Amino acid sequence: MEIREFTDGDWERIWPFFDEIVADEETYAYPRGLTSERARALWVEPPPAVTLVAVDGDEVLGTARTGPNRPGPGAHVATASFMVAPAARGRGVGRALGEHVLALAAARGYRAMQFNAVVETNTAAVALWRSLGMRIVGTVPEAFDHPEHGFVGLHVMHRFLVED
């Protein structure tokens, strides 16, 4: 597996699993029925954000994006989002992307990483992020309408990348 920056030709391999994950409505609060073009605009943001792909040959196993959580006085804290193709789950793709993004954010001078909306029922992701040093700093109650569990919380997770 290789992790590299997104190129234009990657989107056609990301779009099918992006669309599937969004349609499941279990982990992302994106609206259903996004066109490929609108989804790409949401996922592939201009610099200083960066979009990454985890690939095995020509197969895109997963993708991540990272950049400043907020502009201006909040730009020293990074944020990130991740999607792993359902066919690639259980192969360490999420962990590899998470480790890569944390190292990249630190190398780019961000002081911390903040995830704004980790669905509390996404226990695999919560466990992964905790194993990478992220901690839950708060939970917004009933902020996500899960198709199976109803209204569930969204965790805000945080980790410092530099020590004073």
Automatic annotation (TrEMBL):
<keyword id="KW-0012">Acyltransferase</keyword>
<keyword id="KW-0808">Transferase</keyword>
<dbReference type="GO" id="GO:0016747">
    <property type="term" value="F:acyltransferase activity, transferring groups other than amino-acyl groups"/>
</dbReference>
<protein>
    <submittedName>
        <fullName>L-amino acid N-acyltransferase YncA</fullName>
    </submittedName>
</protein>
<feature type="domain" description="N-acetyltransferase">
    <location>
        <begin position="1"/>
        <end position="163"/>
    </location>
</feature>
<dbReference type="Pfam" id="PF00583">
    <property type="entry name" value="Acetyltransf_1"/>
</dbReference>
<dbReference type="InterPro" id="IPR052742">
    <property type="entry name" value="Mito_N-acetyltransferase"/>
</dbReference>
<dbReference type="InterPro" id="IPR016181">
    <property type="entry name" value="Acyl_CoA_acyltransferase"/>
</dbReference>
<dbReference type="InterPro" id="IPR000182">
    <property type="entry name" value="GNAT_dom"/>
</dbReference>
